[in-house]
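Allow me, if you will, to draw on your knowledge of protein folds for a short while. I have a record of one protein: its chain in single-letter code and its fold written as discrete structure tokens. Kindly check, if you would, that the fold set down in the tokens agrees with what the sequence suggests. Thank you for your consideration; the sequence and its tokens are set out here:
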Amino acid sequence: MQICDSYSQKYSLFNAMNRFIGAVNNMDQTVMVPSLLRDVPLLLGELDAAGAVCPEREAAPGGAYFSRRDMYSHYVLLKSIRNDIEWGVVQQAAGEEAARKKDKLGGGPAEEAEAEEDLEQQFHYHLSGLHTVLSKLTRKANVLTNRYKQEIGFGSWGQ
């Protein structure tokens, strides 16, 4: 029974979140000077190993552009996601929430019954997707940590 339990725990969302948080904490403790990560590109092979290749440039909220392949942007992204998991996500504005609820209530009783029956399927779909994303982010945090060690000249440090 022990083997079966450990196999199913591998796919536990709770364990996936713990692995991700642990990898980001390790990254955070290893990266002593985050500004050294600026303008240091992650190689395409490293991004592929982490499970995601990002577009070359993405618009920032202020209209400025920043490179998604720079290690610092990945560092900030991973820390931000960790904080969202640990502390929660800021709720939507009350006006947006009210409009969204009004749109949902527009359906009749038949549509509501279909939605209730479909909840389990939606839950499993999103749970699977969340597990996949967390696994990719965990690999990305580990890749960034190892690359930082190489950049500062401690390739075998901590291993």
